């Protein structure tokens, strides 16, 4: 079960992993916490849908999300609390954070209870969300983390806690390789960044628990990225890096392990290659 804040996060952060497990026959459940109402619009003909205009972007992004799920082979998608329950809060500190339905202002117990209802039904062995900074500090990402971790506590009280909880991330080494590769390029997505430590995200390689090789699904992930056209323009850094690094970047996704016992791994840091590593078919520690 993947818990994400906005339509597009599922693809950007975990699209290849979701496609990998969907193709392998696992039940992949995606829970999206908001409809992304406060997003930018990179499709000029849709500018009138913006929050400050017709305020219809959320509904449109639902269609983008469905197209992305189809590209990834994900068939079980839910909105936390039902479609429209929680609204995209906008970037940290904006007045939109105070909207009556802003996810950032959601009652934690109520939202966690809504996620617990899905956990009771789906009984996920593995859950994936963000770290306590929401990966890069967006209020809805931070709230998605808090709601997920609280729901897992409530599930544990009922004896149905997931065996493992992972937080999506990017290894510091991948960021450094990207910066080195694009140094001097006119199309440098890292142009504003002097040092990798200046980025609001990135995890030291020795703190990574799992690397999922979804390179066989890199094309599906890029199709899902294209489905989120209002958020990710053709000029996006994602396409720049994908064009240069291809499946090596797009298809490889990384996670830290927040809850549970790390299974067998390989390589310099013993990274797992499977989120179910160390679990038996019932999702119990083998
Ligand atoms: C990937 C992600 O979480 N996107 C969010 C984010 O989008 C950013 C926002 O529009 C910001 O104003 C831009 O400068 C930045 O480039 C975007 O990534 O926040 C949006 C508003 O909450 C959200 O809709 C979008 O999904
Ligand atoms: Zn997001």
From TrEMBL:
Keywords tagged on the record: Hydrolase, Metal-binding, Zinc
Catalytic activity: 1D-myo-inositol 2-acetamido-2-deoxy-alpha-D-glucopyranoside + H2O = 1D-myo-inositol 2-amino-2-deoxy-alpha-D-glucopyranoside + acetate
InterPro entries linked: GlcNAc_PI_deacetylase-related, LmbE-like_dom_sf, Mycothiol_biosynthesis_MshB
Entry note: cofactor: Binds 1 zinc ion per subunit.
Domain of life: Bacteria
Cofactor names: Zn(2+)
Residues spanning the signal sequence: none
NCBIfam families in the cross-refs: mycothiol_MshB (TIGR03445)
Protein purpose: Catalyzes the deacetylation of 1D-myo-inositol 2-acetamido-2-deoxy-alpha-D-glucopyranoside (GlcNAc-Ins) in the mycothiol biosynthesis pathway.
PANTHER family per UniProt: 1D-MYO-INOSITOL 2-ACETAMIDO-2-DEOXY-ALPHA-D-GLUCOPYRANOSIDE DEACETYLASE, N-ACETYLGLUCOSAMINYL-PHOSPHATIDYLINOSITOL DE-N-ACETYLASE-RELATED
The protein's name: 1D-myo-inositol 2-acetamido-2-deoxy-alpha-D-glucopyranoside deacetylase
């Amino acid at each position: 079960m993947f818990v994400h804040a906005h339509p597009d996060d599922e693809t950007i952060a975990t699209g290849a992993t979701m496609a990998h497990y969907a193709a392998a026959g696992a039940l992949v459940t995606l829970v999206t916490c908001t409809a992304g109402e406060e997003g930018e619009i990179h499709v000029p003909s849709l500018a009138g849908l913006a929050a400050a205009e017709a305020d219809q972007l959320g509904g449109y992004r639902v269609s983008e999300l469905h197209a992305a799920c189809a590209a990834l082979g994900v068939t079980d998608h839910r909105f936390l609390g039902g479609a429209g329950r929680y609204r995209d809060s906008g970037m940290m500190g904006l007045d939109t954070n105070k909207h009556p339905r802003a996810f950032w202002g959601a009652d934690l117990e109520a939202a966690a209870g809504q996620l617990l209802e899905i956990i009771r039904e789906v009984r996920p062995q593995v859950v994936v969300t963000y770290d306590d900074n929401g990966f890069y500090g967006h209020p809805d990402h931070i709230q998605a983390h808090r709601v997920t971790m609280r729901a897992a506590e409530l599930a544990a009280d009922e004896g149905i806690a997931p065996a493992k909880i992972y937080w999506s991330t990017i290894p510091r080494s991948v960021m450094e390789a990207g910066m080195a590769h694009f140094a001097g390029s006119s199309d440098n997505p890292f142009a504003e960044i002097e040092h990798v430590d200046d980025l609001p995200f990135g995890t030291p390689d020795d703190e990574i628990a799992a690397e999922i090789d979804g390179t066989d699904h890199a094309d599906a992930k890029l199709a899902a990225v294209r489905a989120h056209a209002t958020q990710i323009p053709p000029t996006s850094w994602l396409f720049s890096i994908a064009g240069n690094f291809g499946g090596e970047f797009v298809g490889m996704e990384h996670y830290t392990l927040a809850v549970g016992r790390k299974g067998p791994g390989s390589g310099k840091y013993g990274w797992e290659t499977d989120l179910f590593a160390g679990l038996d078919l019932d999702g119990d520690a083998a």
